[in-house]
Amino acid sequence: MSRSERKENAEQSTLRSEHEQNGVLVNPRAICNLCKRLYREPKILPCLHTFCSDCIAQLEPFSVSSRCPAVEAGDRPAVTVTVLCPDCDSEVDIPPSGPAGLSTDHLALDEVFLETLVTNGPLGCDLCGEGNAESRCEVCSVNLCEFCCQAHRRQKRTASHSIQGLDELKSRGRLCRPVLCSFHPGQELRLFCQPCDLPVCLECAATLHRDHRCCPAHDVIDRHGDRIRELVTARLRPRLERLEESLQKVEVSQEALQARVEATANEVRAFARGYASAVEAHCLSLLRHLEELRVQRRNQLHLQRAQLQQALLDVRGGVEFAERLLSCGSDAEILSAKGVTLRRLTSLAEGSYDPHPATVAPDDGSGICFMSREPAGEVEGYPVVGVINSNTVDVSKCTIEGEGLQRGREGQQGHFTLVCRDSAGEQVARGGDQVLVSVIHKEKKNCTVETTVVDNNDGSYGVSYTPIEPGTYSVWVCVKAQHVKGSPFILNVKRKFRHHSGTFHCCSFCSSGGAKEARCGCPGTMPGGFKGCGHNHKGHPGKPHWSCCGSTVEQSECLPQSVLAAVSPRGHLRTVEL
């Protein structure tokens, strides 16, 4: 069984289940899809769908057109009515004569006839409605009881109709019902009129079609049947299979699409739940960060307040003591307390906390803001936005970059960079902070180093200085009158770099070309009146060395303790280069 046949059987089984009446299944091919009853005068529309004649007559016209003009005066033009097929919505034309002009679906009549034969229980008479039907009129397609059958035969209009017994029809097991002429009841359509392309009976051939070529139906059935069979087999059946295959693919695609959409919807819901959780976690993180900023700023303000209060007390105490000493003390009292008073007042005057408002910048939190569109990285694998921008410097997070903070050299400019950061450790994106850098000699208090601070306007500050004396220095780096982490720093300044005045040689004998007066900074000596060093002689370092100081490291500064302290009256003969 082919796929199309299996599908057709399944459709028919479905239709049978839909047309169950009184517990008895009715053949769906015998049912009109409009009135849901057995066919009554079934007619075939041009789209090959069958309905009852009166059901077609009740269809609402889709359009009305006049096909031809009137032939004679007073004649009306032929009007063609177009309706929509209830099954396929195709536009079909109804003949001017109405549904009666459509072809009769004899196959549907056969199905109706078969349905009446196989129905369980006695059949009622279709004319009187009483008694059991025993026969059937094949022309009128009605079941007749014995009384109505006799009356049917006595009437002149129906006397020639073919009447068969129901028991005989049921015993045949299959339908062998002749197709009768609609113009000559009782006459079977046995001939075919080729010019009119219609099946006719003998009386029609003798009267209405007497000038036409009519031949027996069995002579032309093969030719006309083959045309139908060829269209079905060669063109429509392959197309039907392609359509079924395509439809099956579409159905499979629909199922796959539905499954994919449902899976994607589940992914979207899972993403939404996870993203909502990530956003909530990010919100809590932002609130915690904001609370940390509040506590940090509060602590900084408390510390700054305490430092300012202490500085205020110190300065006020010093000023009050000095003013009282000057106003109330005698000359001897003033002179006796002058030393300690001046030292204290000088210390207070040089303190790091200047009461001038320009050097004090309390943080009121105005720089804290929420930036809703700034990327904030990922939370639980989801990208989130929104950051808390403190826009203020956290002194404890500021860093120093560059070697110029740990070591320097006399007379040479040193450099290092201060990077101001916020509480999150990120470099602030603007400058303008109050930065104070002091470089003070630890042993010589009056030895100050001039410093230069350059604001790069990106949160970083370049600091440069030039020490004039070697020694150990303290480097104070303050932002907003507060020391950064690690301040004060220890800076070691070495003496000015001493360049070598001699040559880097193997010995004075070789470098001077054997001159006896050539000297060397190493303790090496030579016999024979030579005043310098030679290979493998006493005091020679055994490797190349500087002639001015005896250092064996080529990339080094000249050691002053190794320089010759004195020269002969004839002068020091400088060694020549190798």
From TrEMBL:
It catalyses: S-ubiquitinyl-[E2 ubiquitin-conjugating enzyme]-L-cysteine + [acceptor protein]-L-lysine = [E2 ubiquitin-conjugating enzyme]-L-cysteine + N(6)-ubiquitinyl-[acceptor protein]-L-lysine. This is RING-type E3 ubiquitin transferase. Residues 240-267 form a coiled coil. Belongs to the TRIM/RBCC family. Filamin repeats lie at residues 390-493. InterPro entries: Filamin/ABP280_repeat-like, Filamin/ABP280_rpt, Ig-like_fold, Ig_E-set, TRIM45/56/19-like, Znf_B-box, Znf_C3HC4_RING-type, Znf_RING. Residues 176-223 form the B box-type domain. It is an enzyme of class 2 (transferase). The keyword Repeat applies. Keywords: Coiled coil, Metal-binding, Repeat, Zinc, Zinc-finger. Its EC number is 2.3.2.27. GO terms for molecular function: ubiquitin protein ligase activity; zinc ion binding. Residues 32-69 form the RING-type domain. Residues 1-20 are annotated as: Disordered. GO terms for cellular component: nucleoplasm. The keyword Coiled coil applies. GO terms for biological process: nervous system development. Pfam families: Filamin, zf-B_box, zf-C3HC4.
